[in-house]
UniProtKB/TrEMBL annotation:
Name of the protein in question: Tetratricopeptide repeat protein
SUPFAM superfamilies from the UniProt entry: TPR-like
Domain of life from the UniProt record: Bacteria
Natural source organism: Marinobacter guineae
Signal among keywords: yes
Keywords linked to the UniProt accession: Signal
UniProt signal peptide: 1-22
Gene3D superfamilies in alphabetical order: Tetratricopeptide repeat domain
Amino acid sequence: MTFRLLRISLSLLIINPLTVSAAPVLPADIRDGLEEFRQASGVGVNLGDNHQQSLYRDAEEARLSGKTDDAGRVLAGMKEGYWAAVGYLNLSTDYAREDLNPARALVALRVALAMLEGDEDSARRDQLRNRLLVRAGYLAYQHGEYEKAIGFLEKVSLDSFNTPRALYLHGLALSQRSNHRAAMQSWHRARKYPLAYPGVADAWIGMGRGYDLSGYLGQAGEAYLAANAAFESERVTLRKLAEKIRDQGAYKTLVEDARETGIDWFLADSRTLTQPRMAYLLGFMEQPAAQHAAGRVAALAAMAARLAGYQRDLGIFDSALAEQIANIQRQTASAHTAALASQGADLRDRIERLSAKAADSADKSRLSSLAQTLADTQDWLANLDHRASGRPEELRQLRYQSLALKSRNDALVSSVNRLRMKAEEALDKLALDYVASRDQQMAFALDKTEQQIAHLYEYLALQSLADADLSEDKAGEGRP
């Protein structure tokens, strides 16, 4: 409603010059506010993150329908921030697929980087910025713009999930510039990360290729053998991880164990991206289906913990009610009240006798007040037995309600546990598929290193035969 009123008021400012004298004069503060609103409408009205997300969905619908121009127009009307940056990232993907020249895709990525500066969430901004830089570096490298690729990749932070991939691409770009030494330095830094990260396995192979191109064939063979051993060890780790997922579940193995701060984690490594289990968790959570599955398990686990707390509290409350009901002694209470009532009657008789003997009116007034107080006390004692007789019934009603709540809570606990079991089974399946895919990738990398080792040994054998033939020819020339 406010937006409509602003539009109507704004239309009053855009009037025909011939009728300016008839236009109403607006207050200065309203006119200044409308002017700011009109200026803001030219670059997109910031109506909150939800509105920007809605515009992003509209742009995605247009992009997925093949209408990239319409998607670009929607994105141009958005305020700078996270959703605009993601929209331009997706748009750059379409441009890269459609165009032979990466110019439009790189421009879209540069716009995404500029839009991202308006995001107030620093962690989310840094994560997406690193992803945009890696994407831009890959596009530049793919089209032979190596200096531009190096410039993008050197801006990627060293504590990001995309860091190993950026280091690998950085080494490739340097290698294309014939700077093999610097390329191997980048690949050596990438090798310090777990093999679960994209680009690390390629960096292991790249080290051998770098030594090969530099002419150090012996060191190239050693690098390939080291990569081979690393891949074999990683496949053993993946098999153990799969066994643990089958025994303990994916949520316990990948999520809960990553939260531990025990001595095993401390001795294994610092709690950074260099932890293998953290690397597999981050890689697994890149899949939207894995995020939803893990979120369901986490929500159901929190619900189960909350219901368990309710169950414990209701059990304590029921025990307290049962104890109070058992400890009520109506007979003792009646005996005490009867004795007090008898004492009250004696006191009332004594007060009446003193009042009859009293000559002073002030004394008679005080004795009359005392008699009234005593009468009120006797009435309260008379009702005490009635109230005490009703208390056990009230306690029994409360206990009945608590037992009903406990039964309902037990049913909810059973239902949540069944749902959690199904959610964990779905998560386990996704996790095992992910581990199997990682094992397949390690198998491909292992085949690649074995092929490189075979080619290297074949080349060395041929080189040795050539050298032997050359030495025999020289020896034959020296004979008479």
